[in-house]
Amino acid sequence: MSRTFAINRNLLLLGVPVLLFGSLILLIKNVSLAGKDFLNMAITADLVITIPIIYFLLIRKTKIPKITVISMMVLGLVIGTLVLPQSSQTYLDLFKTWALPVIELTVLSIVVFKVVQAIRKYKSLKGSNPDFFTTLKNTCAEILPQKLVMPLTTEVSVVYYGFLHWKKRKIAANEFTHHRKSGTALLLGVFIFLILIETFVFHLILSRWNAIVAWVIFGLSVYTALQFFAFARSLSKRPFEVSNQWLTLRYGILSEAQIPMDKIARVEISKERLEFKGMTRKLSPLGDLESHNMILTLKEPQMLSGLYGIKRQFEVLAFHADEPEQFKAAIEKVIGVNTQDSI
Q: pTM score, two decimals?
């Protein structure tokens, strides 16, 4: 009964805006708007203001993030741009020019405020060392639609780790580095160098054919290089963490896994060559380009989160730790097992 009620409620929340947008589209298609300035203004207001407000009233007492009202507003903007005649888009253009930037800045300000607020809260806890990426992800999950959480978190983190966070991170007693002896930073540095060289060469070649295309490709390539730079710098800012309840494995902002301690079957110091398919995976997305010295085996599958929130299950996970003996001992101290190192 409750499930049926939930389904009907969701249909109502979705159906009312769809019905209203549909009614406006029929009106636009069947009524001449030429020279009817007031009607054009009214339709524009309905698309980008009235329907989003009605949607807000429908969801205000639900768990749906209130910021999805912005998504409804953008949908109205897109519908107006596609359906309204060009001569009737005067007020729509005014909205794009003046209101939309204010809305974007407001959303960004809310995200920044909540992230700063969350970091201050974590720092107030004795012995805490807040992780920016996790804090940002949790904050975005509270105020944004689920599909926007990881893309926004990743892009903001690229800027943060690439350009803003230069302070050396203090490693706590329950944290372990994985970047100092792996050579990953050097490997990513080589990638950045190759990208920049190829960008310069391709730009010279493409500029002879089409200058616009050449500059677009140039911009995308430079941004890719900046992403790799941020990936490299994030490695040192996000160490592994061992607690009484969780083992948190982070590979910069490229991948991470949070594993309940009671789901760990064994942890080995091993460089054994594995076939990475099925439920056997590597923490590093670089695959065979980076070696591993530890293998974690679980009692049941867990989730590995990759770039932009791509998720994959695993039961066996290979990765590199700078101090494998100490890391292994810390895990075994919690799970209460003693095994022989196998290399």
A: 0.69
